[in-house]
Design goal:
four-stranded antiparallel beta sheet, single chain
Length: 109
């Protein structure tokens, strides 16, 4: 799942006071017992709430201004790992046009 966000982030003087476009990528694994039950029986209670993932990402960015990608990826990852049925989660954030010779920079945690 990828979520587009616009926010002020970073410690460089050029990043202060301006919004940047970010892409948040989520790779979430759900316990097989729950996924299998959802697939076989059509039980929505056994599925992952994708809307909740989106909500977590937007909530984390709304709570405060982040200086480091490491901070915000960890905050998002930890909240997703706390969700029912989740066995693992990886979060990546891509900053677009970080430098003229680097069109994007991605950090994954």
């Amino acid at each position: 799942m990828q979520i587009e966000v616009r926010t002020e982030i970073g410690i460089a003087p050029s990043e202060q006071g301006r919004e940047q476009a970010l892409t948040v990528g989520l790779l979430v694994e759900v316990d097989d017992r729950h996924s299998d039950a959802a697939a076989r029986e059509g039980k929505i209670s056994e599925t992952l709430d994708y809307g909740k993932l989106r909500q977590i990402v937007h909530q984390v960015f709304a709570e405060r201004r982040w200086d480091l990608l490491e901070q915000v990826t960890t905050a998002i990852r930890d909240r997703i790992r706390d969700l029912k049925h989740v066995t693992s989660a990886r979060v990546s954030i891509t900053k677009h046009h970080a430098w003229a010779d680097v069109p994007r920079l991605t950090l994954t945690r």
